[in-house]
From TrEMBL:
The lineage of its organism: Bacteria, Thermotogati, Thermotogota, Thermotogae, Petrotogales. The keyword Signal applies. It holds the Pfam family SBP_bac_6. PANTHER family: ABC TRANSPORTER SUBSTRATE-BINDING PROTEIN, THIAMINE-BINDING PERIPLASMIC PROTEIN-RELATED. It comes from Oceanotoga teriensis. This is Iron(III) transport system substrate-binding protein. The keyword NADP does not apply.
Amino acid sequence: MKKLLVSIFIIILSLTIFANEKVGAYTTLEEPLAKELFDEFEKETGIKVEWVRLSTGEAVARMEAEANNPQASIWVGGVGLGHIEAKQKGLTTPYKSPMARNTPDKYRDTESYWIGLYVGPLAFGINTDRAKELGIKAPEGWFDIIDSKYTKMVRVANPGTSGTAYNVVTNIISLFGGNEDLTFTYLKKLDNSIDQYTKSGSAGGKSAAIGEIPIAIGYLHDLVKLKAGGAPLEIVIPKEGTGFELASMSLIKNGPDSLNAKKLYNWVLGEKAQAMIAAWYVIPVSKIAPKDKVVVEIDTLNTVNQDYEWDASNKERLVERWNKEIGSK
């Protein structure tokens, strides 16, 4: 009888421990996509993901504020520059995942602090109904979108909160060969076309999709998804050259659920999760991700040269200048 009671106690204890398994996560994926991914992980492993959706800038700021007492253990998604910035600030920790071998070297940190999940080029989304109503054509490139005919017709995010918008800034710096003064002269011209700076990089596309604004600047996959959902959008990749994000993943330094965070990290890099990610209209970088849903291969696009380390190291300075010269106006 005593042995039976001990056995029952052990079973109850193990079930309780299993039921309480969790991992705290920050994510910059769109909420429906994050829910889809994390729900599947919980279904397969029994580990509950307690997640909070934040923009790239918000995620870095939150981790920095919580550095002495981290509230999450993993950051999934978010522009790669943010992950580099987090590494440089000592907010993340290296992890050599056995699944990392499926990701080409150029899409992961040499010291294993972060790993890329997918690539997303910048693009313009134009609501064709609004364009017809206003008698305008879609802008073809960066030097077209600053034309006065698009005054207050464009929506984009704030580079202080959005990795997407900061990617726009570094894109223009690349187009001007690194000349920051010319870049800010351009950004001031672009400001005349902007009706509103949003917090999230995907918000502008959603506004364009419903006709609230004629034109949005965002990432290709976000715009393609809206179009696939029935939005009357024409999508243009800037002809002069486009920048692109490398959505990535990192483990948070001293996170409270580090073991389960590693399990989630490995699972996201596995076949089931990679197949889910590939269905999001993004360009997956893993060798095991299916490519049948890829809209365009990154190698076929006219992309600008991006120095991720430089872009991350200079972000605070450039955002401060943007706030002073443009954001405060």
